[in-house]
Amino acid sequence: LAGHRDSMLDHLTGVGATGPAASFRADLERMNAANEHVLQAAILRYDDPQRRRQELRAANEIAPDHPFFILGARMAAAALLASPGQLTRYGLGELERILGAAVQQGDPGAAQEPLREWAKREPESAGPQLGLGLLLLRTGQPGDAVPHLEKALAARPELVDVHLALGTAYLLTNRRADGMRQLETAVGMDPRSAVAHEVLGTAYDVAGDDARAIEHLADAVALDPKRVSARIELASLLLRQRRTSEALAHLRVAVQLMPEI
């Protein structure tokens, strides 16, 4: 196959070709070299995440414009290839998606390593602290997430996402009053955030305050009618209140939006 490929390249471009033909041949050879590493990563899948990262980094060094790094795998690739310098280019929303991709890839360490290095380089920056906090929350380590999120809050108290993450971490570590205060602050800062209302409503549900839980979950659904998780949580509460017809209405919409549930 390699010989056939080389013959095709010779036929298409000519060994001694110059100008556009030579450039075309160089691009083909570069992509082909990157393919070897991408294919190795695909074969390895998630059995050897460290080796998989090495193969993808090698491919990225050869051809950063390879389709794997441009098409649907962009976020997963970013999580696997991220360096501190690369992560600093992302906004907080993109950063959270990258961390989620790393967790879904079964390799949260892929993002944790560069985030920790970024935090060392820029100890006053909220980005790496929030990133580490979110990653630790996603992997079931809320106690370890708290100090990072507190540093992020000190650096950027105006960020709603920081208050939501820290409030969640406090609740998961049995600091209920602190957690509710952070979530209330988040809703007050951005009353049109469906996410903030859903998180606060769910917290009130856990605390046994059905009235406030229903109020905030209903706000979340009103602000984002396609938010299935809020609809299901709200339906559960309404059933508890024997408001069956209202609950069924939300469940019907939830099933229409996400038939697999």
Structure description:
The protein is mainly α. It has 15 helices and no strands. Helix 7 (109-121) runs antiparallel to helix 8, helix 8 packs antiparallel against helix 9 and helix 11 (176-189) runs antiparallel to helix 12 (194-207). The chain is globular.
Q: How are the secondary structure elements laid out?
A:
Layout: H1 2-13, H2 20-44, H3 49-62, H4 74-81, H5 84-87, H6 92-104, H7 109-121, H8 126-138, H9 142-155, H10 160-172, H11 176-189, H12 194-207, H13 210-223, H14 228-240, H15 244-257
Name a few traits of the molecule.
261 residues
> Mind describing the biggest β-sheet?
none
Please report the distance between the alpha carbons of the first and last residues.
46 Å
Query: Secondary-structure element order, as H and E?
Result: HHHHHHHHHHHHHHH
Query: Which regions contain 5 or more consecutive residues with pLDDT less than 50?
Result: 70-81
The portion of residues assigned to helices is over 70%
- What spatial form do the alpha-carbon principal axes imply? globular
- The share of residues in extended strands comes to under 5%
Mean pLDDT: 78
Number of strands: 0
Query: How does the helix and strand content classify structurally?
Result: mainly alpha
Count every helix, treating DSSP H or I runs of 4 or more residues as helices: 15
